[in-house]
């Protein structure tokens, strides 16, 4: 039987005053060192097991909780108004597939304070985003997010 292990990651296009937040990965990072991305990270069991399930043992809004936690941990910012944007799957170098759920969200509060795995940040509009060494696909997601917000 095929291996069923996989990771689930959530990313957020954080919007504030018509611009989106991008962050630069530290040079010690294994994947994409020194490249620009949007904040996010892996879903963790603690994103739901510490919360009470409903009467059928189900947890709801896990992705939203995980995204809010990841953005706060990585950038020090609080966000709200999360909305699904797009998803994709990639294979990690170790062969484990990762599902990435990309979302949009709005800045709520806080000042940017980057975690140890990030070394820079910028608030950019769509034109400015083209000038950064973004990981493949991130610009397309940012473009899609701006288009969605225009509606």
Task: Briefly characterize the structure.
Helices cover 21% and strands 37% of the residues. With 151 residues, the chain is an alpha+beta fold.
Oligomer: single chain
Please identify, by name, the CATH architecture.
Alpha-Beta Complex
The CATH topology corresponds to: Nucleoside Triphosphate Pyrophosphohydrolase
The 3D shape can be described as globular
**End-to-end C-alpha gap:** 45 Å
Number of strands: 7
Whole-angstrom Rg: 16 Å
Give the mean pLDDT. 94
User: Count the helices. How many?
Assistant: 3
Number of domains as seen in the coordinates: 1
Q: Report the helical percentage.
A: 10-25%
Main sheet properties: 7 strands, mixed
Strand and helix order: EEEEHEEEHH
Category by helix and strand content? alpha+beta
Uncertain segments are none
Tell me what the structure shows.
This protein has 151 residues and is α+β, with helices and mostly antiparallel strands. It has a single domain (7-150), classed as Alpha-Beta Complex (Nucleoside Triphosphate Pyrophosphohydrolase). Helices cover 21% and strands 37% of the residues. The protein is built from 3 helices and 7 strands, in the order ββββαβββαα. The protein has helices at 62-75, 126-129, 138-150, and strands spanning 7-16, 19-25, 36-37, 40-42, 78-91, 97-109, 118-124. Strands 1, 2, 3, 4, 5, 6 and 7 form a 7-stranded mixed sheet that branches. A hairpin with a 5-residue loop joins β5 and β6 (97-109). It is globular, with a radius of gyration of 16 Å. The mean pLDDT is 94.
């Amino acid at each position: 039987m095929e291996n069923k292990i996989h990771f689930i990651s959530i990313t957020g296009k954080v919007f504030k005053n018509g611009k989106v937040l991008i962050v630069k990965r530290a040079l010690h990072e294994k994947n994409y060192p020194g490249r620009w991305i949007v904040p996010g990270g892996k879903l963790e069991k603690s994103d739901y097991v510490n919360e009470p399930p409903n009467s059928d043992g189900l947890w709801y809004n896990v992705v939203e909780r995980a995204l809010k936690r990841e953005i706060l941990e990585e950038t020090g910012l609080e966000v709200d108004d999360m909305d699904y944007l797009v998803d994709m799957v990639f294979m990690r170098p170790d062969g484990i597939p990762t599902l990435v759920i990309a979302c949009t969200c709005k800045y709520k509060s806080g000042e940017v304070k980057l975690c140890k795995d990030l070394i820079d940040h910028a608030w950019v509009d769509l034109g400015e985003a083209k000038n950064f060494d973004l990981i493949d696909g991130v610009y397309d997601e940012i473009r899609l997010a701006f288009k969605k917000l225009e509606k």
